Structure formats: C-alpha cells, structure tokens
Amino acid sequence: MMCPKGHDQSKKCFEPVLPGCKKCDREAEVAEAKRQREISLQRKRDEEAAEHLRTMKRIEEQLVEQQRIRHDEQSKEELEDEIW
Q1: Phi, psi (5° rounding) for residue 82?
Q2: What is the 3-state secondary structure (H, E, C) of 15-83?
Q3: What contacts 23, CB < 8 A, 6 or more positions away?
C-alpha cells in the first residue's frame, strides 16, 4: 500500500488502517520545525536591524548636536574677535 506521496505503508494484519502516513507526518513536522526556526531567525535579524537603525540615529543626532555646539562656539569666538 502507498500513500499519495508514494511512501510505502506496511502494517500488520491486526493493526488498524491509519488515515495518515507516518513518513508524511514526520516530513510535515520537520518542515514546520524548519519554518518556525526560519521565522525565529528572521525576527532576530529584524530586531538587530532595528537596533542598528536606532543606534545610527542616536549617533547622527549626537553628531548634529556636536556640529551645532562647534558652530555656536565659532560664532561666539567671531563675535569676541569683532569686539576686541
């Protein structure tokens, strides 16, 4: 006896006929475990990418702040130079 996917199904005469195929069921379990693992890995990659973007944004904000401070200091020095 064969399942629809071509797996050989043998059983002893006293065993009941099962509606499914053990090999198909096992393949489905393995495929689902792999799918769940891929989802988990993708979620982790997405979280890492989001954290990277947050870090880059913080660094950029700090850079802009430092540039503003430097510009303000330059302006202050220029004003002081004009006064003297």
Answers
A1: -65, -35
A2: CCCCCCCHHHHHHHHHHHHHHHHHHHHHHHHHHHHHHHHHHHHHHHHHHHHHHHHHHHHHHHHHHHHHH
A3: 3, 5, 7
* Length of the chain measured in residues: 84
Q: What is the pLDDT along the chain (84 residues), one digit of tens a residue?
A: 777 777 877 777 777 766 778 888 899 999 999 999 999 999 999 999 999 999 999 999 999 999 999 999 999 998 888 877
Burial of 23 (0-12, 13-18, 19+ CB in 10 A): middle
Q: How far is CA 23 from the centre of its chain?
A: 31
- Cα separation of 34 and 28, whole Å? 10
- Tell me how far apart the alpha carbons of residues 7 and 23 are, in angstroms, rounded to a whole number: 7
